[in-house]
Recover the amino acids of this structure.
């Protein structure tokens, strides 16, 4: 019976709407008229057939589909659509590579980005599969805008930030809900992952880097200068353990991140680069058979620059957000800082295909009685065609004035802007997801929306939306329909808390002698564990441990020697599991990852490098920037007592 249902569903959502001739936008037409035969132009090709994710979402809700089924269905339908309708275009491009510079396929929406000569663009326009073609940079992002920054290095020992209390987060903490094992995806300027307030929450501690960091500007996790990616992440889940300084709503959650947002006008990216970022959310590990890698909530502190049309209201960006919602993810946006006039809500924040499809959060000053709206907070209504509640923006408000959170690698600062308000709502989602793990993001957001504390004029309005979010009220709303999962209901939690060896970022030998720390974070004694470990995708090694690991205790375990098969970048993944009959409360922390580089010993001393002309042989040198500054490391030498000398500008000579 299930096969029949899904077959019918596929027919409904993929009914052909082929056009005879594709539309070429006016701006692209002008561009094509100026091109010579040898010049290339980069375009977005949007296909006629698109998965109707709004309808798909409705069908999944009617079937009471699990979150696993939701995500797999969205991914499968989207990929099948793209594969079937893009194949003729790809054949054309591959057979004309002299006229095609590059192309990229997307599947979360049925679209391609292509850089080709004018003749190829004209052929694409005649293909029945193609709906319309636009310039690649038809829509672009915009630089981040923090209204005010107040520098501060002060830590609040044992403190709780005002905004967290304002949204009633402590009420859920008192019940035992802290966002444990839930996942945030931060789409922002990047992040300083080693800041002590968020370092324990970095998903890259436990998963391969490619599953935790979607690199756009930097191949490794960093934050940009004068940016707020670290700050917003801290508001969602920050807690500095050493001082018990609580700056985050869901301080036991994990996070992954992407860095497409910029602070420099010259670095602004076209919208298609954000599509790739959202595709990552649906399949971080690259395996369509798994869904436990998908985030629970996305925090968006970005917007699109001004443009003369509003085609985005029903275009591919809208379809992308529909796919995210159908997959069960809560998509949270900061409203923008263009207030206080009407219709100043940002784009794509003003997209409104559902009540919470693009859940937009305005900013209030929670440090003043009555929680008045911040003057800068953008207001509705939406510029998109809509009526009733769909026309009203923002959906809710949250604290966004003088918000203290983490910045740089070990500092704190008070920022204000709606980018400080949105993370409060994203953190609230993570708290609620711990209590209601099987409830889709859409319903979590609807609970926050419908239970918000009314502010301003009575009822929903274009300044406060429904009002200030209240996490406890949202919990009570959800509890009317769903039975909450008790916090800490499982007594076992084995974690690989640290990899003691290897610790060097750069190694000169291929022999690894791993040593790890196992910790019992549960309240029941653990007597045995199966440990597996692996270098990159090389052979998996296995080892058993037995003993008597009491609650909160640790044990050091030396693992068998392993030899790397080649040189280059390596990840050592170590995973420990207990008896499968014993359910753990957090499976993410069962694994730990260490990263390092193994260099070949082939340099001949004395070794000379012409730094003045910057002719640096990358096979001999590695640039390592742990602090964001330029640092030179000697990659390899010979003739030293231990085979290699490591030197950095931040440390004394150190023999390996």
């Amino acid at each position: 019976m299930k096969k029949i249902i899904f077959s019918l569903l596929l027919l409904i959502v993929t009914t052909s709407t082929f056009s005879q001739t594709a539309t070429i936008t006016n701006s692209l037409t002008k561009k094509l008229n100026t091109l010579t035969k040898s010049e290339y132009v980069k375009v977005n090709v949007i296909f006629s057939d698109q998965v109707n994710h709004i309808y798909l979402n409705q069908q999944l809700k009617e079937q009471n589909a699990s979150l696993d089924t939701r995500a797999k269905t969205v991914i499968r339908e989207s990929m099948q659509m793209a594969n079937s309708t893009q194949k003729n275009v790809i054949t054309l491009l591959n057979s004309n590579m002299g006229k095609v510079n590059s192309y990229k396929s997307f599947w979360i929406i049925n679209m391609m980005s292509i850089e080709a000569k004018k003749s190829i663009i004209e052929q694409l326009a005649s293909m029945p599969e193609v709906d319309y073609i636009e310039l690649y940079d038809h829509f672009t992002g915009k630089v981040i805008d923090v209204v005010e920054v107040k520098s501060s290095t002060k830590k609040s020992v044992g403190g709780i930030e005002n905004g967290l209390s304002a949204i009633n987060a402590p009420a859920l903490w008192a019940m035992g809900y802290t966002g444990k094992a839930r996942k945030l995806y931060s789409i922002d300027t990047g992040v300083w992952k080693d800041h002590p307030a968020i370092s324990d929450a970095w998903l890259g501690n436990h998963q391969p880097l490619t599953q935790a960091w979607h690199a756009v500007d930097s191949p490794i996790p960093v934050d940009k200068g004068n940016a707020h990616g670290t700050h917003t992440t801290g508001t969602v889940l920050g807690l500095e353990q050493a001082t018990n300084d609580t700056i985050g709503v869901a301080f036991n959650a994990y996070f992954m991140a992407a860095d497409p947002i910029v602070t420099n006008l010259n670095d602004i990216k076209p919208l298609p680069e954000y599509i790739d970022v959202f595709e990552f959310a649906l399949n971080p590990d690259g395996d369509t058979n798994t869904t436990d890698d998908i985030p629970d909530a996305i925090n968006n502190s970005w917007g699109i620059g001004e443009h003369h049309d509003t085609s985005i209201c029903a275009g591919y960006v809208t379809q992308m957000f529909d796919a995210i919602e159908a997959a069960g993810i809560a998509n949270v946006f900061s409203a923008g800082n263009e207030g206080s006039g009407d219709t100043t809500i940002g784009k794509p924040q003003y997209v409104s295909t559902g009540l919470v499809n693009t859940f937009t959060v305005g900013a209030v000053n929670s440090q003043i009685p009555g929680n008045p709206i911040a003057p800068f907070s953008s207001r509705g209504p939406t510029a998109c065609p809509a009526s009733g509640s769909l026309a009203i923006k923002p959906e809710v408000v949250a604290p966004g004035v003088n918000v203290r959170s983490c910045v740089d690698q070990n500092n704190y600062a008070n920022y204000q802007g709606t980018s400080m308000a949105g993370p409060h709502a994203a953190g609230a989602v993570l708290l609620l997801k711990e209590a209601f793990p099987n409830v889709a993001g859409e319903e979590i957001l609807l609970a926050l929306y419908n239970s918000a504390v009314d502010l301003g004029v009575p009822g929903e309005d274009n300044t406060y939306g429904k009002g200030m979010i209240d996490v406890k009220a949202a919990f009570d709303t959800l509890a009317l329909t769903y039975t909450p999962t008790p916090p800490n209901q499982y007594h076992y939690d084995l974690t690989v808390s640290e990899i003691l060896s290897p610790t060097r970022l750069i190694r000169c030998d291929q022999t690894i002698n791993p040593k790890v720390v196992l910790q019992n974070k549960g309240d029941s004694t653990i007597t045995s564990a199966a440990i597996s470990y692996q270098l990159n995708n090389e052979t998996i090694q296995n080892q058993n441990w037995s003993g008597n690991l009491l609650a909160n205790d640790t044990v050091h375990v030396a693992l068998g020697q392993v030899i790397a098969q080649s040189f280059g970048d390596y990840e050592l993944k170590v995973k420990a599991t207990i008896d499968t009959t014993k359910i753990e409360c957090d499976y993410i922390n069962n694994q730990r990852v260490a990263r390092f580089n193994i260099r070949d010993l082939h340099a001949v001393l004395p070794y000379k490098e012409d730094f003045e002309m910057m002719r640096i042989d990358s096979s001999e040198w590695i640039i390592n920037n742990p602090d964001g500054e330029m640092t030179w490391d000697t990659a390899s030498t010979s003739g030293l007592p231990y085979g290699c000398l490591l030197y950095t500008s931040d440390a004394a000579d150190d023999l390996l």
